[in-house]
């Protein structure tokens, strides 16, 4: 089996054969730390459980039958139609907090039927084993129908009566004929669910340019739109090859520090304002946000020498320009030596990587002069 029965969770009531024939992983980006565990909090709707399915899909179900359920139990829950098999990932008071965050009402929750029986688990394992082959064959069918789409994953329902086909497409796709062919070929109910390129990258996983595992595959579960303005605020080069991730979209990490940059830039003057000086007009070139330094160059056709100016000095020059004045002679430069004290300091004793390549000093040994060979005097 190439798939995971555990769905990223520890199992409690699955047989030993299943755990030996599959890869069990207990870490997942959808795991929620139950900080209300072992606390004397009693609420009326405590019989509501979070159930995890494949990939990023999870749902909330009510235990109306009073079944004793623990985290990690495999349960059969209500589906449309039939029933589905999932793993309980969260219980207790924290489930209500999750529902409030999702703005989901408790009145329309589906129910937990029972703990999964051995027959349910066997059918569930068979369904998981069919997913990869179904995905490969469905791709061939979509290609034969000449549909501009890619089926990235397939998830069977626990009772093998329904399957969700996850696909990505750049344009709107008419897959009505595809649904008919898939339903006739696999004898199941078909649900098509479109995902984005970021969601697909999170499902596949990989290593980013930073050397770490992709954020979308580890902890990011809500994708916020990323624009080139995030790169501009951080003074990054607008190079598509460096700013794009493995999903060919802008990297999600561009949004991580954008709030800090925007807060620092609140007191900065506009970069579109040109400074009028006696030496000429100065144009803004770049900004060191956290040092508070703005770099300018004179508009003389050759922008080779940049002059760093403190933000306060730039504001002062702008105020003088508004009054029709120009700074005297030369623009006052900021002391770069003071700004360099904010740089990273080597506090862990790191040394040069070439420290072992230094050659030992040569000893001053006097070279012995070789005696010239004797000439043959018997000639």
Essential attributes:
379 residues, alpha+beta, GMP Synthetase, Chain A, domain 3, 4 domains, 5-stranded mixed β-barrel, 4-stranded antiparallel sheet
Notes on the structure:
There is one protein chain. The protein is α+β, with helices and mostly antiparallel strands. The chain folds into 4 domains: 16-116, no CATH class; 124-195, GMP Synthetase, Chain A, domain 3 (2-Layer Sandwich), CATH 3.30.300; 201-264, no CATH class; 269-338, no CATH class. 26% of the residues lie in helices and 19% in strands. The protein contains 11 helices and 12 strands. The protein has helices at residues 16-20, 93-102, 118-144, 176-186, 197-204, 215-218, 228-233, 240-243, 258-264, 311-322, 336-339, and strands at 48-52, 58-62, 74-78, 83-90, 110-115, 150-156, 162-168, 189-194, 275-277, 280-288, 293-298, 307-310. The strands form 3 sheets. It has a 5-stranded mixed β-barrel with strand order 1-2-5-3-4. Strands 9-10-11-12 form a 4-stranded antiparallel β-sheet, covered by helices on one side. α3 (118-144) packs across α4. The longest helix has 27 residues, at 118-144. The protein is extended and about 90 Å long. It starts with 15 loop residues before the first helix and ends in a 40-residue tail after the last helix.
Quick overview:
By secondary structure, the chain is α+β, with helices and mostly antiparallel strands. Helices cover 26% and strands 19% of the residues.
């Amino acid at each position: 089996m190439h798939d995971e029965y555990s769905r990223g969770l520890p199992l409690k009531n699955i047989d030993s054969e299943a755990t030996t024939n599959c890869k069990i992983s207990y870490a997942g980006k959808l795991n929620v730390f139950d900080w209300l565990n072992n606390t004397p909090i009693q609420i009326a709707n405590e019989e509501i459980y979070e159930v995890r399915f494949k990939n990023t899909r999870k749902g909330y179900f009510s235990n109306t039958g009073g079944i004793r359920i623990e985290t990690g139990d495999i349960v059969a829950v209500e589906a449309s139609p039939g029933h589905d098999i999932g793993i309980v990932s969260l219980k207790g008071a924290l489930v209500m907090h999750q529902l409030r965050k999702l703005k989901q009402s408790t009145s329309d929750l589906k129910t937990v039927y029972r703990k999964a029986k051995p027959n349910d688990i066997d059918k569930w394992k068979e369904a998981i084993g069919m997913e990869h082959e179904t995905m490969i064959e469905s791709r061939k069918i979509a290609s034969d129908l000449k549909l501009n789409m890619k089926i990235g994953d397939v998830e069977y329902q626990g009772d093998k009566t329904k399957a969700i086909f996850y696909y990505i497409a750049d344009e709107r796709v008419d897959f009505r004929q595809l649904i008919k062919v898939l339903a006739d070929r696999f004898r199941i109910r078909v649900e098509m669910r479109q995902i984005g390129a970021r969601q697909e990258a999170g499902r596949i996983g990989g290593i980013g340019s930073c050397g770490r595992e992709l954020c979308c595959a580890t902890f990011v579960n809500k994708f916020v739109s990323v624009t080139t303005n995030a790169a501009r605020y951080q003074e990054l080069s607008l190079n598509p090859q460096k700013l794009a991730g493995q999903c060919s979209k802008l990297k999600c990490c561009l949004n991580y520090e954008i709030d800090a940059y925007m807060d620092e830039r609140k007191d900065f003057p506009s970069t579109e304002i040109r400074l009028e000086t006696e030496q000429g007009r100065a144009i803004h070139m770049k900004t060191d946000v956290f040092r508070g330094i703005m770099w300018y160059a004179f508009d003389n056709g050759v922008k080779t020498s940049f002059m760093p100016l403190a933000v306060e000095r730039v504001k002062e020059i702008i105020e003088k320009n508004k009054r029709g004045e120009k700074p005297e002679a030369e623009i006052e430069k900021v002391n770069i030596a003071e700004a360099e004290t904010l740089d990273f300091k080597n506090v862990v004793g790191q040394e040069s990587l070439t420290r072992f390549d230094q050659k030992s000093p040569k000893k001053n040994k006097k070279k012995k002069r070789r005696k010239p060979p004797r000439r043959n005097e018997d000639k």
